[in-house]
Amino acid sequence: MRIKKGDTVKIIAGKDKGKSAKVLKVFPVKNKILIDGLNVYKKHVKPKKQGEKGQTVLVPRPIYVSNAMLVCSGCGNSVKTGYRLGNEKKERICKKCGAVI
Length: 101
Ligand SMILES: [Zn+2]
Known about the structure:
By secondary structure, the chain is mainly beta.
């Protein structure tokens, strides 16, 4: 996957389009990412004990990687990424400014 945990991404589709936040978790098998505080849905939780009230909690749902773009720490834009071979290691680079991200 092009996006890793801890990256800042911008959502380009869906209800939070245009917003950006940090990636909390990646799900490589599902091609999805969980973003901090975005794509949040209300979930109703049933009371566990008698006499307790049910409550509504906000739960973030993962989105498809294809609906997000990486935000470059160098130029601050949402960018496409490329790869180049650095010190015997593959480096992810910003296609706009060339910074390693
Ligand atoms: Zn850049």
